[in-house]
């Protein structure tokens, strides 16, 4: 049987990324042009700057991905591109580049949901076994997604306010750490002690999450200490904040694993790069029999196109095709 070669493309936020994937599991190339340096001084992603950078980078990144993989457009079975959710201007750059190449070379086009991509990053490191539960934690999303089979996604819980990554970035800002703050908090947390009492939003009877109360508690703790002239160790605050986030994420995941009787749990999204979260899940799941835990390497947790290629291959095999009226959809549902 012939191999399936797919080009994955991702431009939903601040990474211009293109990858060539073989049979949905093997990475032939994975090129990521990060714009973080350009957004840092604004303390977050500036949409207009993101779109402009994508326009400048996209064709170069596409060429590099092909060259590294030693393939040409005529070798490709399909082009898979993130159609949403994300920043509309940023999405449109990837979608239009994908449509142009699809039209010019007669290559089938597949639209991919960004979160489906994050989940399918796990297929690049492990076999997926269903039913499966994905804990998706990124800058824009915090979700528990139940999958009874390939390409089937049921959101059983989601954040009611801030996403986990958003909370990390805001807490980092309060501690005057650079953007994106997640990795800095992670590093500080490892050096501190979780000695400061912070809330946990359990939202009993639901798999939903809430992180805005926790975020406000951190901000208040810092302000109150400043007013009283007290010194709080930033590493202790980071450790306390991180412990609260991890406590809620892992507890709810384990509850859902039991209720839905899943065979596998996969971790997905930028916050999946968090060392504390990875360690806590590994420790907890080492004691749960018959449930396999999969955690992608750091480079496949943050935004990349290999994950879009992996998800795109599944949708392509299911016969899903996008036409040339494919549009960027900032609010796309999974
Ligand atoms: O998935 P992603 O690359 O982009 C979105 O789709 O949102 O996630 C980015 C988010 C940022 O909020 C960043 O601070 C967070 O992931 N992040 C982390 C870590 N590495 C990245 N959060 C906590 N610990 C980390 N090590
Ligand atoms: Zn993402």
Describe how the helices and strands are arranged.
Layout: E1 5-10, E2 15-22, E3 26-34, H1 36-40, H2 47-69, E4 78-84, H3 88-105, E5 109-113, H4 114-120, E6 132-137, E7 142-147, E8 154-158, H5 164-174, H6 182-191, H7 212-228, H8 234-260, E9 264-268, H9 275-285, E10 292-294, H10 298-301, H11 306-317
Parallel strand pairs: 1-4, 4-5, 6-9, 9-10
Antiparallel strand pairs: 1-2, 2-3, 6-7, 7-8
Bound molecules: 5'-O-[(R)-(carboxyoxy)(hydroxy)phosphoryl]adenosine and zinc ion (ZN).
Zinc ion (ZN) is lined by residues 114, 118, 138, 269-270, 303.
Give the number of DSSP strands.
10
CATH superfamily of the largest domain: ATPase, nucleotide binding domain
Please state the average pLDDT score: 96
Q: What distance separates the N and C termini?
A: 31 Å
* Principal-axis shape: globular
Radius of gyration: 20 Å
What is the third-level CATH name, the topology of the largest domain? Nucleotidyltransferase, domain 5
- Report the CATH C-level class of the largest domain: Alpha Beta
Bound molecules: 5'-O-[(R)-(carboxyoxy)(hydroxy)phosphoryl]adenosine, zinc ion
Beta-strand content bin: 15-25%
Q: Would you identify the CATH architecture of the largest domain?
A: 2-Layer Sandwich
Instruction: Give the fraction of residues assigned to helices.
Output: 40-55%
Spell the H/E element sequence: EEEHHEHEHEEEHHHHEHEHH
Q: Could you say how many structural domains there are in total?
A: 2
Discrete helix count: 11
Give me the side-by-side strand order of the main sheet: 3-2-1-4-5
Largest sheet data: 5 strands, mixed
Low-confidence stretches: none
Pfam families: TsaD
Domain Gcp-like: 26-309
Protein name: tRNA N6-adenosine threonylcarbamoyltransferase
Cofactor: Fe(2+)
């Amino acid at each position: 049987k012939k191999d399936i070669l797919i080009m994955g493309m991702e431009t939903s936020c601040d990474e211009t990324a293109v990858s060539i994937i073989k049979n949905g599991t093997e990475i032939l190339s994975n090129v990521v042009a990060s714009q973080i340096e350009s957004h840092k001084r604004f303390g977050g992603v500036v949409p207009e700057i993101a779109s402009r950078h994508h326009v400048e980078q996209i064709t170069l990144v596409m060429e590099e991905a092909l060259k590294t993989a030693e393939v040409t457009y005529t070798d490709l079975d399909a082009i898979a591109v993130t159609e949403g959710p994300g920043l509309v201007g940023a999405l449109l750059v990837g979608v239009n580049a994908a449509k142009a190449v699809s039209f010019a070379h007669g290559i089938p086009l597949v639209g991919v949901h960004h979160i489906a991509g994050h989940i399918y990053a796990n297929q690049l490191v492990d076999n997926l076994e269903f039913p499966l539960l994905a804990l998706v934690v990124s800058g824009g999303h915090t979700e528990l997604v139940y999958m009874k089979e390939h390409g089937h996604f049921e959101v059983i819980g989601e954040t009611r306010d801030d996403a986990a990554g958003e909370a990390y970035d805001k807490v980092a800002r309060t501690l005057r750490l650079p953007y994106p703050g997640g990795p800095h908090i992670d590093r500080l947390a490892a050096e501190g002690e979780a000695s400061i009492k912070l809330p946990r939003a359990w939202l009993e009877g639901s798999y939903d999450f809430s992180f805005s109360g926790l975020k406000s508690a951190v901000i208040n703790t810092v302000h109150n200490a400043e007013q009283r002239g007290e010194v709080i160790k930033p590493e202790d605050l980071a450790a306390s904040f991180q412990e609260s986030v991890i406590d809620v994420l892992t507890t709810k995941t384990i509850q859902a694993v039991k209720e839905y009787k899943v065979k596998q749990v996969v971790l997905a999204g930028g916050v999946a790069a968090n060392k504390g979260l990875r360690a806590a899940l590994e420790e907890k799941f080492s004691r749960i029999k018959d449930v396999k835990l999969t955690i992608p390497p750091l480079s496949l947790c943050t935004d990349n196109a290999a994950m879009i290629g992996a998800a795109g291959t599944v949708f392509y095999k299911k016969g899903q095709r996008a036409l040339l009226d494919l549009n960027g959809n900032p609010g796309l549902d999974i």
